[in-house]
Automatic annotation (TrEMBL):
InterPro entries, A to Z: Rds1 (IPR039254)
Keyword Transcription: no
Any Pfam family the entry gives: Ferritin_2
Source organism (scientific name): Hermanssonia centrifuga
Keyword Membrane carried by entry: no
Superkingdom: Eukaryota
Keywords: Signal
Protein name: Ferritin
Position of the signal peptide: 1-18
Length: 138
């Protein structure tokens, strides 16, 4: 549970810095409480604050479904491009020469295929509302 909370906190922090106009900095309604862990560091405490602020602000957003799906599609475009370009630049021999087992590249191929499927799914759901992919320089 703590790992999930930490991942969620990292996501909320990313959102706070990546889209500051969407994440309102507000005091959590229960700002005196802390996570149940007895070993809370300053970083964890800060992340905990942002998670609470993120939850408080998300309840006020009310974004249209189309806009949320367009955002998701843009993220999938980035992920799909990242994996496909990486795989096109490094073949099996490159992975082996770098000390990786062949299963590592195979897993990247699988992830790349999943990302391409996510793109196709979101494009089909959005139809004419689907944004065009960006030209990434990775």
């Amino acid at each position: 549970m703590f790992t999930f909370s930490l991942l969620l906190a990292a996501f909320a922090t990313q959102c706070a810095f990546a889209a500051p106009n969407l994440v309102k900095r507000c005091t959590p309604s229960n700002s005196t409480s802390t996570p149940s862990s007895t070993n809370v560091t300053a970083v964890t405490g800060t992340l905990y604050y942002y998670v609470n602020a993120f939850y408080a602000s998300c309840s006020q957003l009310q974004l249209p479904d189309t806009q949320v799906l367009q955002f998701a599609l843009n993220l999938e475009y980035l992920e799909s491009t990242f994996y496909s370009r990486g795989l096109s630049q490094f073949n099996e021999t490159d992975f082996e020469n770098a000390g990786f087992d062949s299963s590592v590249r195979e897993r990247f191929v699988q992830i790349s295929e999943h990302e391409a499927t996510h793109v196709k799914l979101l494009q089909s759901v959005l139809g004419s509302d689907a944004p065009e992919p960006c030209n990434y320089t990775l």
